[in-house]
Amino acid sequence: MGSGKSTIGKELAIHLNWPYIDLDSFIEETIEMSIPNIFETKGEIFFRKQEHLLLKKCLEQNTSAVISLGGGTPCYANNHLFFENNEIESIYLKASIATLIERIKKSGTERPLLKDMGDLPAFIGQHLFERSYYYNQARYRITVDHKDVQQVVNEILDTLSLA
Fold this sequence. Notes:
Layout: H1 5-16, E1 20-22, H2 23-31, H3 35-41, H4 44-59, E2 66-68, E3 91-94, H5 97-107, H6 120-135, E4 140-143, H7 149-159
Parallel strand pairs: 1-2, 3-4
Helix pairs in contact: 1-7, 2-4, 5-6
């Protein structure tokens, strides 16, 4: 959350002329509810099951696409195992706690996991620690601190040898 997955994903897809899929948006469109509403009315377990099924559906399309995952996606339902597929170029957009705090505060969006949360730096640090194993299953890691969108996109393209 706050690493730039959606913004960078959209820009990367434009550059590559590939379809862009924001998994969270795809879930909302499919279920016809916002993610905060899904969490509130159906619960996190329902959300995570749908997230897994819809991610699998996206990956089975057999077409090149840029897919932005939610921050928790790799951590549930063995979703991180999808990264083992040699045809999937997975990228972890790594940001420092300070960068994430700055971006989250700027966005001002409603995020289910931030509801009623107190100490933001501690919360983010704990989540990064708990999720690091899953995030680090990605084939590539790109640090986003102090970089603009185009710099990150260019670094991804260079990393994937697509520039």
